[in-house]
Q: What sequence folds into this?
């Protein structure tokens, strides 16, 4: 990650090196905070943020699920995001809004502590991971389960939830895989460490229902685009063996975009290569985020 010049913090634009938190900030100790991961793409009409409002609405929902409020409206945060991208003169970048609880008490009670909001942006190039976009990703079933729905709040993109995903991803990488596939507490396929999964079976797409999962914005985008293309999309619980007998599989997420999943536990899915339907979904996705297909203009916020 390359550092940028400036970060937006509580309405101020501050130099990157000055954007610091105090050691006794509540979120640093307990993971009680919420964040987002958003991308700004370089389009022919200038930089455009993909589904910015939906991401910022999810940030507000995540906070509400935990029990606190983001002290800025979605409109204010849309303006702040555009401001900080402009201040760094980025044509394409990653955007990381974070709402965190500051100093004011070191117990679990946080009500007296201030809620702070920061929006960091950093350069993210177009060709990062392009090899994976074509050749696909190899995953293992994680030894860790996706949080039970009454353990951590799975619909909140909460800082503390990511301890699990970091452990799962690290375990997979250390074992020589690219990614982890987590099962839910009942053993159904849940999601990757930062992405959702789709299977292709007899020409239809199948993805797990949201019950245990983050309400993914790419997942929803792919469902809309696939249905626009005339593909059937079903939301169904399935077990890991169903992945192995699928014709194709792919991961989706803001970072992963649409990445073929070509192997699970060293066993090939389909013929172990990016499949034709995965490629069609990828093409539709990239045409949309880069503003080439004009079908969903409301999904792009130009900077
Ligand atoms: N699952 C998890 C656990 C994630 O962190 C992410 C990334 N936000 C996703 C799925 C994909 O969600 P989105 O498409 O909204 O980026």
A:
């Amino acid at each position: 990650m390359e550092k940028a010049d400036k970060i937006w913090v509580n309405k101020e634009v501050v130099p990157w090196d000055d954007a610091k938190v105090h050691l006794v900030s509540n979120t640093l100790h307990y993971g009680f905070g919420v964040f987002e991961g958003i991308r700004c793409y370089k389009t022919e009409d200038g930089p455009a943020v993909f589904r910015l409002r939906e991401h910022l609405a999810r940030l507000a929902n995540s906070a509400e699920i935990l029990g606190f409020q983001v002290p800025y409206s979605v409109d204010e945060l849309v303006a702040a995001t555009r401001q900080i991208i402009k201040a760094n003169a980025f044509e394409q970048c990653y955007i990381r809004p974070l709402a965190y609880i500051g100093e004011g008490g070191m117990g679990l009670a946080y009500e007296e502590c201030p809620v702070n909001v920061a929006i960091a942006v950093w350069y993210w190039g177009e060709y990062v991971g392009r090899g994976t976009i074509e050749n696909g990703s190899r995953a293992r079933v994680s030894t860790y389960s996706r949080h039970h729905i009454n353990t951590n709040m799975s619909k909140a993109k909460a800082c503390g939830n990511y301890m699990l995903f970091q452990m799962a991803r690290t375990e997979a990488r250390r074992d020589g895989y690219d990614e982890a596939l987590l099962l839910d507490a009942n053993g159904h396929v849940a999601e990757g460490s930062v992405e959702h999964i789709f299977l292709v079976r007899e020409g239809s797409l199948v993805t797990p229902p949201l019950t245990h999962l983050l309400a993914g914005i790419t997942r929803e985008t792919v469902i809309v685009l696939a249905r626009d293309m005339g593909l059937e999309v079903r939301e169904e619980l399935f077990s890991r063996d169903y992945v192995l007998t699928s014709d194709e599989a792919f991961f989706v997420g803001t970072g992963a975009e649409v990445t073929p999943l070509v192997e699970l536990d060293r066993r090939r899915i389909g013929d172990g290569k990016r499949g034709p339907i995965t490629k069609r979904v990828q093409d539709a996705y990239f045409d949309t985020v880069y503003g080439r297909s004009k079908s969903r203009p409301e999904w792009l916020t130009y900077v």
About this structure: The first strand starts at residue 6 and ends at 9. The mean pLDDT is 96. The two ends are 22 Å apart (CA to CA).
